[in-house]
């Protein structure tokens, strides 16, 4: 299995709960390395652009409002099978359906405020990493 990268966001609810370190520890224990990272308060335009694929969905406006409600921590993670590994750590989109021990089961309150984002495939990961990071801001480790 080749090394892969994925884009991860610790959403405003989890930043507000002060569990950034606990979430990073889960990445590290699973063998995922942080190869890029920044804290940012997204503009409406940035959030709308990032979630453009969902713009026709009924939850789009609520999603954008939530993502700009406070600062987020954005990182690129690298490891074997990183996209799937990261999604396994996150758990199901709705925390009520997330498996015990997953980030969303432990830290998320609702399907809207669900603690984390993760890319859903290798090709979307590439685009999402480029959306937030210049090539010089992503490091080989
Ligand atoms: P994410 O993109 O944030 O990692 O989450 P995901 O892949 O698990 O879920 P996705 O289908 O991509 O949806 C993006 C975010 O929109 C919100 N959502 N709300 N009310 C709803 O039915 C609904 N469905 C999705 C969630 O906050 C989800 O993370
Ligand atoms: Mg998604």
From TrEMBL:
<keyword id="KW-0808">Transferase</keyword>
<feature type="active site" description="Pros-phosphohistidine intermediate">
    <location>
        <position position="117"/>
    </location>
</feature>
<dbReference type="InterPro" id="IPR036850">
    <property type="entry name" value="NDK-like_dom_sf"/>
</dbReference>
<keyword id="KW-0460">Magnesium</keyword>
<feature type="domain" description="Nucleoside diphosphate kinase-like">
    <location>
        <begin position="3"/>
        <end position="140"/>
    </location>
</feature>
<keyword id="KW-0547">Nucleotide-binding</keyword>
<keyword id="KW-0546">Nucleotide metabolism</keyword>
<dbReference type="InterPro" id="IPR034907">
    <property type="entry name" value="NDK-like_dom"/>
</dbReference>
<feature type="binding site">
    <location>
        <position position="104"/>
    </location>
    <ligand>
        <name>ATP</name>
    </ligand>
</feature>
<keyword id="KW-0963">Cytoplasm</keyword>
<dbReference type="InterPro" id="IPR001564">
    <property type="entry name" value="Nucleoside_diP_kinase"/>
</dbReference>
<keyword id="KW-0067">ATP-binding</keyword>
<dbReference type="GO" id="GO:0005524">
    <property type="term" value="F:ATP binding"/>
</dbReference>
<comment type="similarity">
    <text>Belongs to the NDK family.</text>
</comment>
<feature type="binding site">
    <location>
        <position position="93"/>
    </location>
    <ligand>
        <name>ATP</name>
    </ligand>
</feature>
<keyword id="KW-0597">Phosphoprotein</keyword>
<feature type="binding site">
    <location>
        <position position="59"/>
    </location>
    <ligand>
        <name>ATP</name>
    </ligand>
</feature>
<feature type="binding site">
    <location>
        <position position="11"/>
    </location>
    <ligand>
        <name>ATP</name>
    </ligand>
</feature>
<dbReference type="GO" id="GO:0005737">
    <property type="term" value="C:cytoplasm"/>
</dbReference>
<keyword id="KW-0418">Kinase</keyword>
<dbReference type="GO" id="GO:0006241">
    <property type="term" value="P:CTP biosynthetic process"/>
</dbReference>
<feature type="binding site">
    <location>
        <position position="114"/>
    </location>
    <ligand>
        <name>ATP</name>
    </ligand>
</feature>
<keyword id="KW-0479">Metal-binding</keyword>
<protein>
    <recommendedName>
        <fullName>Nucleoside diphosphate kinase</fullName>
        <ecNumber>2.7.4.6</ecNumber>
    </recommendedName>
</protein>
<feature type="binding site">
    <location>
        <position position="87"/>
    </location>
    <ligand>
        <name>ATP</name>
    </ligand>
</feature>
<comment type="function">
    <text>Major role in the synthesis of nucleoside triphosphates other than ATP. The ATP gamma phosphate is transferred to the NDP beta phosphate via a ping-pong mechanism, using a phosphorylated active-site intermediate.</text>
</comment>
<dbReference type="GO" id="GO:0046872">
    <property type="term" value="F:metal ion binding"/>
</dbReference>
<dbReference type="GO" id="GO:0006183">
    <property type="term" value="P:GTP biosynthetic process"/>
</dbReference>
<dbReference type="Pfam" id="PF00334">
    <property type="entry name" value="NDK"/>
</dbReference>
<dbReference type="GO" id="GO:0006228">
    <property type="term" value="P:UTP biosynthetic process"/>
</dbReference>
<comment type="subunit">
    <text>Homotetramer.</text>
</comment>
<dbReference type="GO" id="GO:0004550">
    <property type="term" value="F:nucleoside diphosphate kinase activity"/>
</dbReference>
């Amino acid at each position: 299995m080749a090394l892969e990268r994925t884009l991860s966001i610790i959403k405003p609810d989890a930043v507000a709960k002060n569990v950034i370190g606990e979430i990073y520890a889960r990445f590290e224990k699973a063998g995922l390395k942080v190869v890029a990272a920044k804290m940012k308060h997204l503009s409406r335009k940035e959030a709308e652009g990032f979630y453009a694929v969902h713009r026709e969905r009924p939850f789009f406006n609520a999603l954008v409002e939530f993502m700009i409600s406070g600062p987020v921590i954005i990182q690129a993670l690298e490891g074997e099978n990183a996209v799937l590994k990261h999604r396994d750590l996150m758990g199901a989109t709705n925390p009520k359906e997330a498996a015990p021990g997953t980030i969303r089961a432990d830290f998320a309150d609702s399907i809207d405020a669900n603690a984390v984002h993760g890319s859903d495939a290798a090709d979307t990961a590439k685009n999402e990493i480029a959306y937030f990071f210049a090539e010089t801001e992503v490091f080989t480790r």
